[in-house]
Design a protein that fits this description.
alpha/beta; 5-stranded parallel β-sheet
Length: 202
């Protein structure tokens, strides 16, 4: 018979009050509590705590405290990741984040779902679907990413968006529900190269 953890990671219905899962959740909450109590002078301590929390990370990752997470061990983060204040990861299913990804304040990644039927829901069943984020992604403040969503590479998600469906590569997407606004093109690169040159001129 499969354990509740195996059911959870498979995306099947499971019961979260299982003792094994409670132990792993307690571990994650303990590490994040310690992290959230650190100061700007404790960067080495912060990096050590993040390495212990997540199953895999790149060399340069940073969360502005406070942040919150369910398990940590179900999340992988690539190189050069930054998250602003108050981010929340509900990682009952795998969360995968690529390289060069930035989160604004209060971004929420929610892999958790609950049955629509109240009878089953009231029996404490829930389920999860993975969230995947590609490389070179900027997610604006207050964005909510729902279970089962994949966001491609070279994507900007506008602040306050609620992402309910997959977002392809090389686009700006905004809204509730989040929709593609336009593609990111070579002209965007040229525009921002000119802005950068103005900066160095002044």
């Amino acid at each position: 018979m499969r354990s509740q953890k195996e059911k959870m990671l498979a995306g099947d219905l499971y019961i979260a009050s299982d003792p094994e899962l409670a132990k792993e959740s307690h571990r994650a909450k303990n590490i994040t509590r310690l992290y959230n109590q650190t100061t700007e002078e404790d960067n080495d301590i912060r990096q050590d705590l993040l390495k212990k929390l997540f199953s895999k990370t790149g060399k340069n990752i940073y969360f502005e405290p406070p942040f919150h997470i369910d398990y940590g061990v179900n999340t992988t983060i690539g190189e050069d990741f930054y998250a602003n204040y108050d981010c929340i990861f509900l990682d009952i299913a795998p969360i995968s984040i690529g390289n060069n990804v930035m989160f604004g304040p209060r971004v929420g990644l929610y892999t958790a779902g609950h049955p629509i039927d109240a009878v089953i829901r009231n029996q404490q069943y829930e389920y999860g679907k993975p969230i995947t984020i590609g490389n070179d992604v900027w997610i604006g403040a207050g964005v909510i990413i729902n279970p089962g969503v994949t966001i491609g590479s070279n994507v900007v998600i506008g602040s306050g968006s609620v992402v309910t469906k997959d977002i392809p590569d090389n686009v700006i997407a905004v809204g509730n529900p989040c929709r593609v606004l336009r593609e990111i093109t070579e002209s965007d690169h040229k525009t921002w190269e000119l802005e950068k040159e103005k900066y160095f001129e002044n």
